[in-house]
Amino acid sequence: MKATERWYSSRIERDITLARWGHYGTPVLVFPTAGGDAEEIERMHLVGACWDLIEAGRIKIYSCDSVAGKAMVDGAGDFTYRTRLLNQFQQMIAEEVVPAIHGDSGGPVPIVAAGASIGAFNALAAQCRYPWLFRTSICMSGSYRLQRFLGGEYSPELYLSSPLDFLPSLDGPILDQLRTGYVLLTSGEGAWEDIGESWAVADMLGAKGIPNRVDSWGPDWEHGWDTWRAMLPAYLRELT
Q1: Are residues 202 and 75 in contact, defined by beta-carbon separation less than 8 angstroms?
Q2: Degrees (nearest 5) of the Cα angle 224, 54, 181?
Q3: What is the pTM of this model?
Q4: Which of 28, 45, 71, 98 is the most exposed place for a label (fewest CB within 10 A)?
């Protein structure tokens, strides 16, 4: 039930891997954490936590390399390089990864975006920037202000890539489409968690009339894989 494909992306100027688990059901694109590759979620048993849903044919899970996130973790290049790569990574998702998922699914279908930590940022950004491709996002323990990871404050590339930057002025058909979707922001309140980031996003989404919900899992849930292994299957059962 697992398959992988790899190709060279001219947008990010390197090879990219897309992995899939399952053969039928709602496609779910799970973004890795900051430095993760396409198979991180399998190694960390997140795929296994969702296996009953995969076997039942309710979902197919996809994941791709976290190219822009890895550049942040590694400190590759300068602020301009990292924000440019973030913008190009998001374009690659929309123009290469999504068509690959559609091809694997027999045609265009709505995709659920999901992820934890920086992966939550990528899931939110995918839906907010391309709401005609992603109907729902499941954003777990998210970090949504990336300036501190990127090493600077503003660039046109960051504005295009960061929902907290572009949402306040968003209007027109893209906003109308976003208002037909749903954003779930979930976080623990234990060690290394900051649910305040989720509330900041929720406030901005609500101000624009975009349906959303914040779920707190409380102080017993820390920023880590045990939390996300509990969260993701629970929400996929609810939303798919």
Answers
A1: no
A2: 75
A3: 0.97
A4: 45
Q: Which two tokens mark 35? A: 């430095």
CB-based burial label for 21 (10 Å; 0-12, 13-18, 19+): buried
Residue 218, amino acid = G
Residue 146: pLDDT over 80 = yes
The three-point CA angle 199-206-174 to 5° equals: 120
Spell out the domains of the chain, with CATH numbers in brackets.
2-239 (3.40.50.1820)
| pLDDT single digits (tens) 85-135 | 999 999 999 999 999 999 999 999 999 999 999 999 999 999 999 999 999
Q: How many helices (H) and strands (E) does the chain have?
A: 13, 8
If one counts every other C-beta atom within 10 angstroms of the C-beta of residue 62, the result is: 25
Q: Collapsing DSSP states into helix, strand and coil, what is residue 174?
A: helix
Q: What is the dihedral of CA 196, 178, 163, 89, to 10 degrees?
A: 130
CB 155 within 8 A of CB 83: yes
Degrees, nearest 5: CA angle 137-96-235? 20
48 burial via Cβ count (<10 Å: 0-12, 13-18, 19+): middle
